[in-house]
Amino acid sequence: MTDLPEEGQPIEAVPTVYSGTTFRSRLEADWALTLDTQSILWQYEPKKITLPSGARYLPDFWLPVIGTWLEVKGPATPRKEKALELGKARACRCDGPCACAWPGGEMVLLGWVAERTHGDISVARSRSGYASWAAAHGPSAYFTLCPWCGLRQWITLRRPWKCRSCRRSLESEELYQPHDRVLPFGSGSVWSPADTVAIRREIAEQITGAADSEDSRSAAPYEE
Please, what's the b/e burial string for 41-77 (b: 16 or more CB within 10 A of its CB; e: otherwise)? Predict the structure, then answer.
């Protein structure tokens, strides 16, 4: 893995200690911090996997409660063939209703540097901002909160949408992508879907209130 200097040019990875674990890079440590702020249990490089191609692969993180692998990728480490192969190999292949340990099978995520603005990856400030990710295989990955068990997690849009822990329905829940900027990255801030919902509701009410006020002024009788 690589880290980024202020100029945005890639340099060698800087081993970083966080929570008693020595990570190969600062970016990996920041992802561990981000997972901790969301109460997502993680294991760092728990085991090597032999892929169907015969290649050996050591994913960065295993998230055991939600059955998800996370491969952290900096801008100077574009190769993701092994993550793609793992995602395809571990995806659900059930003919009928999913009987996998986790709905949809094991998920493989690619974790990027922080996103600072909508769709803009800032190399100069890669250690703060909002988490950015992508599914290594299959439909896009969405971040959400299960209202039943309280577990924060990523799911895909493969139906039915179910919690990857308690397996209860998430069909009516808010789902978020990186460009929604709801998941603080490496900042220690804990995100709650209620925060984003409340903000959007407040904005909508302000817009409606302004429109009503304008209508009232328009309908008011003319006074000398």
Answer: ebebeeeebebeeeeebebbbbbeebbbbbbbbbbee
